[in-house]
Specification:
By secondary structure, the protein is an alpha/beta fold. It contains 12 helices and 12 strands. It has a single domain, classed as Metallo-dependent phosphatases (Purple Acid Phosphatase, chain A, domain 2, 4-Layer Sandwich).
Length: about 375
């Protein structure tokens, strides 16, 4: 046979066995294949050697102890098992709420002050006016407040160095937030709290938790974004009038020319903000722009809707002036009647006081 004659399977197996046993001399291998030429055996043997050198057999090191890994983890988990794992972890989680009902027993009309953007701790805040409004709230029966975000400043965490103009540390501002919420709740004056970009978003981005949410937890209804409040006024004879109120520190809609644009878009897109099963609120409240405003639509009490934009106490902030315009003080206040569906808006708490009491607040003493 020539060198090009194909090898039979049993002959190639015999040749590999001989070479594996240590027989590598070509003449000796030729003797085992008398029907093959010398060149045929030499070529085939060299090919087997090259294969062995390119794919060496890895032999364990003698007397080497392999580590014991115990039970190896599963390479994959069934999809349903993953779902069960997620269900277990979320079982104890309390989801955020965007709806609350607050009931007040009222023998006469009450007033709700919608206040936001205190920016407490900032350098450019009108603290005299802030103190005056808060003291008025605590002292006057029948007046309540909804805080609509940005109660603290927390500009220590702002990415722009020029904006870091706080006069109080974050610890001091956190202590203030804690006390203002607890003191106002204990006085029976606080209805709701909304998340703001200063007091919640800044701390969420930097520390992973909402500071205002932490302070309000377990004390007062807290809205992480848009909130829907059913304010139920109850009389002694068991009658009840419910005023739905929509609240948001800021919306995705804004207009430099119209501070009420966000509130009016909330009305137009009520189902998108609050769900299809909620009645249209009678009051829509936004903040964030530091530009207070109020407008009433509907001539009869039954179809009356009041749009509100809260002002600020941060009235001399160069950062705000540079990008948004000068901030203005504004705590719009709405009077709600318990014996009939009627609510009336006022630009200031002092005007609401005059409507409810028949004389000016300054004259009360």
């Amino acid at each position: 046979m020539s060198a090009k004659t194909p090898w039979r399977e049993k002959d190639e197996l015999l040749l590999r066995q001989l070479m594996a046993s240590g027989v590598t001399d070509i003449p000796e291998l030729v003797n085992a294949f008398p029907h093959r030429t010398f060149d045929a055996v030499r070529i085939k043997a060299n090919k087997i050697k090259r294969e062995a050198s390119s794919n060496p057999v890895r032999v364990p090191i003698p007397e080497h102890e392999k580590p014991d890994y115990g039970e190896p983890p599963k390479e994959s988990i069934d999809v349903l098992a993953w779902c069960d794992r997620a269900i277990t972890r979320t079982a104890g989680h309390e989801p955020a709420k965007d709806y609350y009902r607050v009931a007040i027993k009222a023998r006469r009309p009450i007033a709700v002050m919608f206040s936001a953007d205190w920016h407490f701790g900032g350098l450019n805040v009108d603290y005299v006016s802030l103190r005056q409004h808060y003291q008025f709230l605590l002292n006057e029966p029948g007046f309540y407040m909804s805080l609509v975000g940005d109660i603290g400043n927390i500009m220590n965490l702002h990415r722009t160095a020029a904006a870091r103009r706080d006069i109080l540390t974050i610890d001091e501002q956190a202590e203030f937030l804690h006390n203002v919420i607890y003191q106002t709740v204990d006085a029976g004056k606080l209805l709701t709290v909304n998340s703001g970009n200063h007091d919640d978003e800044f701390t969420e981005r930097s520390a992973g938790f909402g500071l205002l949410k932490l302070m309000a937890k377990g004390k007062v209804p807290y809205f992480r974004g848009h909130g829907y409040l059913d304010l139920a006024l109850q009389t002694d004879d068991g009658a009840e009038v419910v005023y739905p109120i929509g609240l948001a520190h800021k919306t995705r809609f804004s207009s430099f020319m119209n501070p009420l644009h966000g509130a009016k878009r909330m009305e137009q897109m009520t189902s998108g903000f609050f769900g299809i099963n909620r009645p249209i609120p009678r009051v829509f409240v936004t903040a964030h722009r530091h530009d207070p405003a109020m407008a009433t639509e509907g001539l009869t009490p039954e179809d009356r809707i009041i749009h509100v934009a809260c002002g600020t106490f941060n009235t001399d902030c160069p950062f705000s002036q540079r990008y948004f315009g000068q901030g203005r003080i504004g705590v719009p206040t709405i009077v709600f009647h318990p014996d009939r569906r009627e609510h009336v808006g006022f630009p200031t708490p002092w005007e609401a006081y005059r409507y409810m009491n028949g004389h000016d607040w300054e004259d009360a003493a």
